[in-house]
Here is the input.
Amino acid sequence: MLIQIPIEKIEHGMIVHQDIISAIDGSLIAKKGTRISTKKGDKLSNLTIERFHEHGVTHTLVKVADNYLDNHPDLAQKLAKQSQPPQPKQSEKPKIDIEEVSPPKPPKKPDIELPKVEALVDDELREMAVDSIRNMFSIANEGKTTENMTTAYKAVKEIEDVVDKLVDSLDESNSLVHIAGIKSYDEYTYHHSLSVAILSISIGQSMGLSGYEVRQLGRCAMLHDIGKILIPQEIINKPGKLTDVEFETIKNHPALGSEFIAKWNIGDMALRLGVLTHHEKIDGTGYPNRLSGKKIPLWGQIISVADVYDAVTSYRSYRLPMPPAEAVELVMSQVGTAFDYEVVRVFIDKLELYPINTCLELSNGRFGVVINNEYAMRPIIQMTDNNEIVDLLSFENLSHMIVRVID
Here is the structure.
């Protein structure tokens, strides 16, 4: 069977069943199928325990015997504990387990009818939002050579109208937030900006911000990555490890975005500062200004959490998305280093990981539909091949990971 195993439990000669990606710089450490070595100086493998630690990877997917957990009760107990609704942790480094992929193929037609998951925003509003973001990015790109103020102001008005509709929609629903229904493999940048806006608006509403503040926060989130259009696109879309020079170039996009927003007089100073600071970290290791703690504006702190969660749960041409529950673990593991505790707490309270009727693929290759999500990280599902009811929180099913959400 396949299980996610902590690095300290790795045994010499185990084979990884996924590409291993650095949690520090996003580089590829080892390909799927690489043998792990626990011996220093082992010439047969470059994947050592030390290499995992150097790159902040705390878990990896390996194949073990079916009775492995019976012989390792401490690990079985730990997996059971991780399946419970977790508390934010401050000391662990994030784990990122990613595979290089093409867009996933849908499963075979199930034996049970799959009710459609209710969309968080309707198709018309989603298309309107994506169009408005696309138009604004186009203005930013043309702004390098033109000063078309009329077109710019029209694009700004489109953004404002969309955010007003999003705020009203989320305020009326007053329900948990899930963003699977608005994700798209195509046009990642625009759909990412929309997802970050929805998550940020939801967090802001839950934190008791005024209507005006929530709307400005939503506009800020929609435009948080606008500076990336001013960065060479071969750097933005590079799937491999960035050079030091390329990374320094990428780090300019918050400042470039803030300058663009100031140039076109979009929003107020709080909005501009939110764009400028969405990559700052609580411990002072972020960019561009290495701000720390409360020196980081609230909007920058909120967008930072939403940005990371949506980025790691989205499909990219060079990796699979992280399952929502793992992404939540990643976010929680960075409380006190990258993120503020209160912002993360509110974010997790508002997030619905696997809505009822969502179709999931498990690590054993089977598919099931969520019928009970009382335990958000490990729902109860009905299998699509034989209608069996499977509780993923039960001991016998702890080894079955949720691999991906099926659209």
Summary: DSSP finds 14 helices and eleven strands in the chain. Confidence is low (pLDDT under 50) at residues 82-101. The CA atoms of residues 59 and 150 lie 52 Å apart. Residues 149-173 form the longest helix (25 residues).
